[in-house]
Amino acid sequence: MSTSGVEGYELSTDPDRLDVDLVHHWLSTDAYWALGRGRETVERAVHGSLNFAVRAAGGPQVAYARVVTDRATFAWLCDVYVAPAHRGKGLGTWLAGAVRDHLAPYRLTRVMLSTLDAHEVYSKAGFVPFPHPENLMLLTPAQSSDAPQN
Q1: Which residues pair with residue 3 across a beta bridge?
Q2: How far from 134 is each of 69, 119, 137, 138, CA to CA, in Å?
Q3: Contact (CB, 8 A) for 34 and 24
Q4: CB neighbours of 98 closer than 8 A, spacing ≥ 6?
Q5: In whole angstroms, what is the distance from residue 81 CA to residue 68 CA?
Q6: Structure confidence at residue 73 (pLDDT)
Q7: Beta carbons of 11 and 37 less than 8 angstroms apart
Q8: Residue 81 — φ and ψ, nearest 5°?
């Protein structure tokens, strides 16, 4: 898939057009949710996901998003990142909308994401607050080897 939606930019899901080195740099140094994430972890995440890269027309990659999905019932939009020099141009909203549109043919029951501060960006693409957050649960890794095991 390759489309243009914001003038001067193009979006692609072609894995050969993804700059994994750049994605690793962005996530591990500037994304609050992934600071310090290792290169190998980024590579594994990329290879196990549906990836979206935004490039300046004829130029470098300037944004990224990945989707973890079974392509049948569920998807998780994550690692959405827009390079600082390209923020404020609508790329985040366009990227979220492109993900939504790409997933539409799968007729997924639920597409989720988590954000600390970009609610407005995602709401423009149709995302709404989770209706019953009290229903969500999280499995977290043990914080230390001496943590109590129940």
Answers
A1: 11
A2: 23, 19, 8, 11
A3: no
A4: 3, 5, 11, 52
A5: 16
A6: 98
A7: no
A8: -145, 135
Domain 2-128 bears CATH identifier 3.40.630.30: yes
- 3-state class of 91 per DSSP? helix
pLDDT in tens, 40-77: 999 999 999 999 999 998 899 999 999 999 999 999 99
Mind listing the pLDDT tens digit for each residue in 4-33? 578 999 999 999 999 999 999 999 999 999
Q: Residue 111 corresponds to which amino acid? A: V
Cα separation, 44 vs 66, in Å, equals 12
CB 3 within 8 A of CB 10: yes
- Alpha helix ranges (H) inside 1-150: 20-30, 39-47, 91-103, 119-123
Structural tokens at position 73: 């019932």
pLDDT, mean of residues 100-113: 97
Residue located via tokens 């977290």 = 140
Per-residue tokens: 142: 């043990």
Place of tokens 């993900």: 99
Task: Report how far residue 79's alpha carbon sits from residue 31's, in angstroms, rounded to the nearest whole number.
Answer: 8
Closest CA to 122 of 101, 95, 104: 95
